[in-house]
Amino acid sequence: MAAVILQAKGLAKAYGGLKAVDGVDFALNAGEIHALIGPNGAGKTTFVSLLSGRIAPDAGQITLAGQDVTALPAHLRVRKGIAYTFQITSIYPRLSVFDNVALAAQSQGARDLAGAVGVALGRVGMQGLAGQEAGTLSYGHQRLLELAMGLALKPKVLILDEPTQGLAAGEIDDFGALVRSLVPHTTVLMIEHNMEVVMDLAHRITVLNFGRVLAQGTPAEIRANPAVQAAYLGTD
Ligand code: ATP
């Protein structure tokens, strides 16, 4: 059985009377691509915000490689290896691509900064753009830069929030190949609305609905699950 890298037990968060995340048990296996799906308002963003430490849970426990990180603030969870792309890696538009990635690498105490930046940019195929001002990049390249910044954090777990949103079809294909190339070195958890991407890319899928886990399984299992079809995918 695959080793569990990140685990949540009984995780809960309410806003007023609304249970955004309502007692979620979840296990992320090391080296997998795991997609988190569910209808709007299902609690996906709240759930990954709990994992990354951006918000604190009302109840439950989070462990990273067996270590309890529930009480750790977000920046310390990053250091332990949980990177949440849109929390950690907002781009500085006036800085160069290189300097943006260098800031991320530096925050993790990289000794060979230029080397670390080169590796991260190489992973996303952006070495040739190192000198460019980040704000002048195309949208697709900015998303890749965010990914490179996430990778420069050397994460055990990389959480991507709707990574293909706004990308053109060709860019989505490239993104899929890129994410595949990241595992098994890192583990990817992604919130994704594009079902084609989810079914093509994910090893396993967790479906949230009304803050609870509705189903969990392989793409084939999720596709065939009647509860998922009824709640989310439609029956056709
Ligand atoms: P989407 O796919 O639309 O992004 P989601 O699955 O990510 O949705 P969340 O954003 O986690 O869902 O929201 C879950 C529920 O919690 C929603 O009903 C939302 O309105 C509510 N909610 C989220 N954040 C807050 C907040 N800061 N204050 C109050 N309610 C919130």
TrEMBL record:
GO terms for cellular component: plasma membrane. Residues 6-235 form the ABC transporter domain. GO terms for molecular function: ATP binding; ATP hydrolysis activity. The keyword ATP-binding applies. It comes from the Bacteria. SUPFAM superfamilies: P-loop containing nucleoside triphosphate hydrolases. Keywords: ATP-binding, Nucleotide-binding, Transport. PANTHER family: ABC TRANSPORTER ATP-BINDING PROTEIN (PTHR45772:SF2), CONSERVED COMPONENT OF ABC TRANSPORTER FOR NATURAL AMINO ACIDS-RELATED (PTHR45772). This is ABC transporter ATP-binding protein. It comes from Fuscibacter oryzae.
